[in-house]
What we know:
By secondary structure, the protein is an alpha+beta fold. The chain folds into two domains: 1-35, no CATH class; 38-116, Glutaredoxin, CATH 3.40.30. The protein has helices at 19-31, 46-50, 53-66, 104-116; strands at 38-43, 73-78, 90-93, 97-99. A four-stranded mixed beta sheet has the order 2-1-3-4, covered by helices on one side.
Amino acid sequence: MGKNLFSKGKAAIPASVRTKEKRALRHTMSKYPTNPRQVIYACGSGKCQKRGGKEIRKTMRDQLKMAGLQDEVEIIKTDCTDRCKHGPIFSIQPQNIWLHDMSEAQIMQVFREQVVGP
Ligand code: FES
């Protein structure tokens, strides 16, 4: 089985990966040197932004910092997920929890329960 490129520590980048891609990969690896235990995918497109997605994302980042979890939980902004009517859309992985049709307070409650912890 191949070596996990994103495993802890400096990982080998296969020679077959082109130079530009290697630089991008090294940048990502230096920003996130370990595999996050959770990833939150947050729709960053227009309708979800207008429905409070940007502010919720910022609040999540602030709470992760306050809890010291910024290296364990990664928030990734995505393009539109074609669920605009149900936004703002957030997906918590690996639990595969999709947040939609929820108020900011409900989203933050799930975030606290599933990500930050008690
Ligand atoms: S704008 Fe967020 S799902 Fe389309």
